[in-house]
Amino acid sequence: MMTLYLWLGFMYGLMMCSLTWKCVNCFEFEHSQPLPLQDWNNNVTYKAAAEAFAYAYARRTPPLMVGLTLVNAAASKGAVCLDGSLPGYHIHRGYGSGANSWLVQLEGGGWCNSIRKCVFSKKTRHGSSHYMEKQIPFEGILSNKAEENPDFYNWNRVKVRYCDGGSFSGDSQNEAAQLYFRGQRIWSVVMEDLMSKGMRYANQALLSGCSAGGLASILHCDEFRHLFPRTARVKCLSDAGLFLDVPDISGWRTLRYMFAGVVTLQGMQKNLPQGCTKRFNPIMCFFPQRSIASVRTPLFLVNTAYDTWQIQVSLAPASADHHGNWNGCRKNYARCTGSQISFLQGFRNQMLYAVRGFSRLKKNGLFINSCFAHCQTERQDTWFSPGSPHIKSKGIAESVGNWYFDRAVIMAIDCPYPCDHTCHHLVFK
């Protein structure tokens, strides 16, 4: 019967990704420690978890739905969303061996770099808690099922909603437009609220985030570490947060222009890592490639070498594609010409160059795969499932877990596209 479940799980992998054979020409730097077969952290090995996942998928168990909690004390401290509404988060309590372990996930959602864009954002869930879902599914790294999330399933798991448009780092306002840029205050008040609800007793903690939240997890990493005693194991994870300051297809630095507007409009200069701002213009320190060098807390970067958000918005945006030559490639990697793939290979090379110093520190970790995707830790099919993305023999969940619990030093870098056949590529209509 288990063979049948494993077969069903494999077929699920075939459906969820474009190709499922493993990459055999990848580079992976890993110093492994001998591991007991039966118990890594929560008495679940990855082999057993894979079997359990296949069984669970055969039963099609629905994800856990978690309700929204608003921080009522936030208003008195000016810690409000773009429209002045209360910030919020979703929390599911841990138990057993994870009762005193906390995973805090910062939501992403882009940035607003002008009054016009921020006025638009404040009428969406990324600018107002009035528009946020009252319940959201906890999947991937937030899942409460051991077979879907072997290392963190029974931790206290929190999803902090994103409603400031500035990666939780701004502190200003625009009275004329009735806009509040209070990301730094939201960060502080949410952390205070969580500490009062038991996070102060944590002996293990992980700050994570995706996209703009992945950038925020880098910017706030050391602040998060300082919330806990030195005896606690505290680390940070950034998923799809490695935004690069590189020229677009026209030679213009589109993302630098965008980030300049965000940093200036939201008054975040004083809130960015001082180790970086002492050396660079604050705008430059909003780019992770410069700020990661000043992060002292152990940090893991999960990123695709061909990040679809960066391709669409900062590398080949419509504003730089005057003749529409990149229209097809932007939406579907299979439509990219040879010269366009060469341009994207150059972007990959710049990403690897940006993390060269970071990768020399064994406290840090890397998982850079050669997929056309954006955010891989929050989706179950990419975080941990039969057929999920791998570099050599390790998937994302296992790599993050091995790094967090010091089971191995993980510096996994994929071979260039198109060698990796485990990818779950994103195709846009």
UniProtKB/TrEMBL annotation:
E.C. code: 3.1.1.-
Localization per record: Secreted, Cell wall
A family per Pfam: PAE
GO biological process: one example: cell wall organization
EC supergroup of this enzyme: hydrolase
Record flagged with keyword Transmembrane: no
Range of residues in the leader sequence: 1-26
Primary site of residence: secreted
GO molecular function: pectin acetylesterase activity
Keyword Signal set for record: yes
GO cellular component annotations of the record: plant-type cell wall
Sorted UniProt keywords: Cell wall, Cell wall biogenesis/degradation, Hydrolase, Secreted, Signal
PANTHER family documented for this protein: NOTUM-RELATED, PECTIN ACETYLESTERASE
Family: Belongs to the pectinacetylesterase family.
Function as written in the Swiss-Prot or TrEMBL entry: Hydrolyzes acetyl esters in homogalacturonan regions of pectin. In type I primary cell wall, galacturonic acid residues of pectin can be acetylated at the O-2 and O-3 positions. Decreasing the degree of acetylation of pectin gels in vitro alters their physical properties.
Listed name of the protein: Pectin acetylesterase
Source taxonomy: Eukaryota, Viridiplantae, Streptophyta, Embryophyta, Tracheophyta
